[in-house]
Amino acid sequence: MTDTVHRAIHAARRARLAAQLGAGGIALVPTAPERSRNRDSDFPYRHDSYFHYLTGFTEPNAWLVLAGDGRSTLFCQPKDLERETWDGYRLGPAAAPEALGVDEAFSTAELDQRLPRLLEDREAVWYPFATHAALETKVDGWLGKVRARVRAGAIAPGQQRDLCGPLDEMRLVKDAHEQQLLRTAGRISAQAHVRAMQTSARLLREGVDAREYHLEAELLHEFRRHGAQFPAYTSIVAAGANACVLHYRADNAPLRAGELVLIDAGAEYDSYAGDITRTFPADGRFTGPQRALYDLVLASQYAAVEATRPGARFNDPHDATVAVLAQGLLDLGLLDADKAGTAQDVIEQRTYFPFYMHRTSHWLGMDVHDVGSYVEPGEADRFTERRDPLSGETIKSRPSRILRAGMVLTIEPGLYVRPAENVPEKFWNIGIRIEDDALVTEDGNELLTRGVPVEAAEIEALMRG
Ligand code: GLY
Ligand code: MN
Ligand code: MN
């Protein structure tokens, strides 16, 4: 993709956003701060997603100011040969308009001096609420400076508005450029899972002391080898019973024949995330009970994939998953039909919850748990209230989002079986999740992450190879 095309994509997004600010509106969008890890070492720098969505710019210490008439002003780090010798190249304000397509650019050092003037005579100032520490305080300071000039005829903005509203709606429906990046992130992530599965089988065949971190190393190698800049989130590599800990991280537990390994890992490629989970036998051969649970989770995922199409609701894939899991838990004896009743009872009483305690989907995009309302706009006042049978709390349900082509969501059912008196022992400590990324298309969905097999027999075949 050429720089010209990139510039045009970001300029078009700024124009769409500006049109929603109102003629008297002005928006402030800072990028992310650099964060110290310890002493003078920083965490790897990651720009802010909103800022990058509107500029394509990856340097720290930068701000976009966008006026309702479409005029864009960038504040960025000034050229500084000494700093650039230590920290690397800076674009600088002189080159920024040509490189990024903004109308004008200044040094970030001029922000406090120029911002009050830019805010003067505007009706509303927009910025992302509750996303940047102390941003509200900064805005207050600039507004204070505008107010100090009211006797000189300046008018201070009378409204502060949350920029997340319009930006989240834009980011929720991915354009063609974003879809392509998500395909690439999905493909690289899938290749990394293939590599980890094959490595696990090989290490066990060789009889070496294989650990979770060995597989994490394979994931990172494969991400980076294909140009992904970061893992999209901290990789989970969970051997055996660790799979039942939802936020486990790759640690040093041994990979053992006869046990499963759950890997939840995805690459971030040019700011877009992949998010895949696969669960496989460490040595490449499912045991009977593992296979029974695996096939149940997979059947529930197929049902959810089937329910993912334009016009359906965001909650439909989750409901489809739960219906399959509820029946399966009864069929396999994890729930006792004499006590739990029918599948419908299991759903209504939420007795499946000890085995499946998370939702099936989330939006995916620049952020792994991406922005976007889960409630259909315009239907927020149509809620029902019910008593949750487990907690006793009153829960408000609103109609969930209607899926549209261009939305991207994960589909990630699972089952997690802790040792418990009424649960057959053969299932104890098995944790399974299967997660793929789905782009809603005009007539259904496209799975972006099926470059890694998902059928049990195909996983076994891959791991034999
Ligand atoms: N990897 C985070 C998630 O699956 O939601
Ligand atoms: Mn996920
Ligand atoms: Mn995941």
Map the helices and strands.
Elements: H1 3-21, E1 25-30, E2 36-38, E3 41-42, H2 49-55, E4 63-67, E5 72-76, H3 81-87, H4 96-100, E6 104-107, H5 111-119, E7 124-127, H6 135-147, E8 159-162, H7 164-172, H8 176-206, H9 212-225, E9 230-231, E10 236-239, E11 260-265, E12 267-269, E13 272-273, E14 276-281, H10 288-306, H11 315-331, H12 337-340, H13 343-349, E15 384-387, E16 394-397, E17 408-411, E18 414-416, E19 431-433, E20 436-440, E21 445-447, H14 456-464
Parallel strand pairs: 1-7, 5-6, 7-8
Antiparallel strand pairs: 1-4, 2-3, 4-5, 9-12, 10-11, 11-14, 12-13, 15-16, 17-20, 18-19, 20-21
Helix pairs in contact: 5-6, 8-9, 8-14, 10-11, 11-13
Bound molecules: glycine and manganese (II) ion (MN) (2 copies).
The site of one manganese (II) ion has 5 residues, from loops.
Please give a quick description of this structure.
With 465 residues, the chain is of the alpha+beta class. Helices cover 37% and strands 18% of the residues.
Distance between the termini: 37 Å
- The helicity comes to 25-40%
Rg estimate, integer Å: 25 Å
What ranges have pLDDT less than 50 throughout 5 or more consecutive residues? none
Question: Which kinds of small molecule does this entry bind, naming each only once?
Answer: glycine, manganese (II) ion
Query: What about the largest sheet?
Result: 6 strands, mixed
What structural class is derived from the secondary structure elements? alpha+beta
Molecular shape: globular
Mean pLDDT: 97
Figure out the total of helices: 14
Number of strands: 21
